[in-house]
Write a structure and sequence with these properties.
By secondary structure, the protein is α+β, with helices and mostly antiparallel strands. The protein has four domains: about 5-140, Schlafen, AAA domain (Methyltransferase, Cobalt-precorrin-4 Transmethylase, Domain 2); about 145-210, no CATH class; about 215-380, 2-Layer Sandwich (Heat Shock Protein 90), CATH 3.30.565.60; about 390-480, Arc Repressor Mutant, subunit A, CATH 1.10.10.10. About 35% of the residues lie in helices and about 20% in strands. The chain has helices at about 5-10, 25-40, 60-75, 110-115, 130-140, 160-165, 175-180, 195-200, 205-210, 235-250, 260-265, 270-285, 315-320, 330-340, 350-360, 390-395, 400-405, 415-420, 430-440, 465-470; strands spanning about 15-20, 40-45, 75, 80-90, 90-100, 105-110, 120, 125, 185, 190-195, 215-220, 225-235, 295-300, 300-310, 365-370, 370-380, 445, 460. It has a six-stranded mixed sheet, with helices on one face. It has a four-stranded mixed sheet with strand order 1-2-5-4, covered by helices on one side. Helix 2 (about 25-40) links the parallel strand 1 and strand 2. Helix 12 runs antiparallel to helix 15. The protein is globular, with a radius of gyration of 28 Å. The two termini are about 55 Å apart. The model is unreliable at about 255-265, about 385-395 and about 475-484 (pLDDT under 50).
């Protein structure tokens, strides 16, 4: 239904609305209609300039007939729009309305079906690639990517042991369960895993889906010019949730009285909101897309969670905010639901916005960037940056630094002994960075300073380090920061 023109003129251009001054450049106009009908429908208003001033069209009946001919000649499959002539302040404008088409993907005929398919992203049109065109076709046919069978594989290509461990208190995961969850399908007399099963529990997931992993980064400041730490997470998707949250918690700076705040389990980042957002990204990523993984970017003032894939056809950002949900990956979603990672269908995004308001945080932002969806969670107070050699008091509040200081409080330890005490099989790159940072900052020192590479080398607390440990020693040593 076309809204009153006065109401339309108060809105900004976006996913379902565009203004055009006239028909002097018909090709962009027709491509916009193609994008609308492939994405979520929309209205094209002709006779209004970029400032939303009504210019009008000189001969509306002629222009309506011309526009109908352009649409018939330049768009395939055939598209029949609703065109109305509206008069406002003595001037006539054309409003062209198209709906999400059941014949998608439509394409701009001169460019052909491979290069002429467009989708709407924000207020712009974007040419669809081969993967997105396939996704548009599947959405019409009622086929989802993660339910498709991988006929060249067998159940032996799944890490069934890990799946059994996750489901041990919920399901037996026998053959019937695997079929019910659509982790297996029967094809040509044999059982084969679905794409969802391989994405969830595949032994060689990255071989089949090279971008199905998560890239986490902690950046200093408000942009990506200065990265402090990063982690590439390749865990099975249900396990990846906790791995991502551990990374975020590791870099969540807490108050100066570390032990008191730790005892209350209070974080300076909204843990509940972020967990919901992480799960939402893992479940709704378009794993058919190629080019980049899921990205979690932690800045001083916000955390951005970005996943491949635009909104499903028919969905808008406003729909998401209101709790409307369409599941892109039902196999993955069903497994997450069985594991209690998802509580109620369609409640995630709405709960994110509601909790942000309750916590007094700025309203989160959702936007389509390129062929990706980005959710921005703003923080109440800017996080303290932790660059090496600066802001020392902030540095030692990081979980790993505090834990190292507590471990070395009783007796000097070698780097390998520190790693072992923290539950690591070997000294990781992050532990090396922490040891260097603590030594450079004057909280740790070598026991053999004249021979830095000595096999007898150990680390001990300096007077400054002892003072800090004493300051935060309101709890027994075994209540140190949780193991990573």
């Amino acid at each position: 239904m076309i809204l009153p023109i006065e109401q339309i003129l108060t809105q900004n251009e976006g996913k379902t609305l565009e203004f055009k001054r006239d028909l002097s450049s018909p090709k962009p106009l027709v491509k916009t209609l193609v994008a609308f009908t492939n994405t979520a429908g929309g209205q094209l208003v002709i006779g209004v300039d970029d400032r939303r001033r009504v210019i009008g069209v000189n001969d509306p009946l002629y222009e309506e007939e011309r526009l109908s001919s352009l649409i018939a000649d330049l768009i395939a499959p055939r598209l029949v729009p609703n065109i109305e002539i509206i008069t406002i302040n003595g001037k006539s404008v054309l409003i062209v309305e198209v709906f999400l088409s059941g014949s998608r993907p439509h394409f701009f005929r001169p460019d052909g079906p491979e290069n002429g398919v467009y989708v709407r992203l924000g207020s712009t049109n974007r040419q669809a690639d081969r993967e997105l065109i396939a996704e548009l076709r599947r959405s019409v046919e009622g086929i989802t990517f993660d339910e498709m069978a991988m006929n060249d594989l067998s159940v032996n290509d799944l890490d069934v042991k890990s799946a059994l461990e996750l489901f041990k208190d919920r399901r037996s995961l026998n053959e019937k369960d695997l079929l019910t969850l659509k982790l297996l399908k029967k094809e040509q007399g044999k059982y084969v895993p679905t794409k969802g099963a391989v994405l969830l529990f595949g032994k060689q997931r990255l071989f089949h889906f090279s971008d199905a992993w998560i890239q986490c980064g902690r950046f200093v400041g408000g942009n990506k010019s200065n990265i402090f730490d990063h982690s590439d997470i390749h865990d099975h998707l249900p396990i990846a949730v906790d791995s991502i949250m551990l990374f975020l918690k590791k870099h969540a700076m807490r108050g100066a009285d570390f032990s008191e705040i730790r005892r209350k389990d209070v974080w300076s980042i909204p843990i509940g909101i972020l967990r919901e957002a992480v799960i939402n990204a893992l479940v709704h990523t378009d794993y058919s897309q190629r080019g980049a993984p899921i990205r979690i970017s932690f800045f001083d003032d916000r955390i951005e969670i970005e996943n491949p894939g635009i909104l499903l056809p028919g969905m808008t950002i406003e729909d998401m905010k209101q709790g409307v949900s369409r599941i892109r990956n039902p196999v993955i979603a069903r497994v997450f639901r069985e594991l209690n990672l998802i509580e109620q269908w369609g409640s995630g995004v709405r709960r994110i916005f509601s909790e942000a308001e309750t916590l007094g945080l700025p309203e989160p932002q959702i936007m389509e960037i390129g062929m990706r969806l980005r959710l921005i969670i703003y923080l109440k107070e800017a996080q303290v940056a932790i660059p090496e050699g600066a802001q020392v008091e902030a540095q030692v509040e990081a979980q790993v630094d505090i834990e190292i200081l507590n471990i070395c409080a009783e007796t000097p330890l070698s780097s390998s002994e520190i790693a072992s005490a923290m539950g690591h099989k070997q000294l990781s790159g992050n532990l090396r960075k922490s040891l260097k940072r603590l030594r450079t900052s004057g909280f740790l020192e070598y026991t053999v300073p004249e021979k830095p590479t000595s096999q007898l080398q150990k680390y001990r607390l300096t007077a400054k380090g002892k003072q800090l440990v004493k300051k935060q020693s309101g709890q027994p040593k075994n209540n140190a920061a949780p193991r990573r």
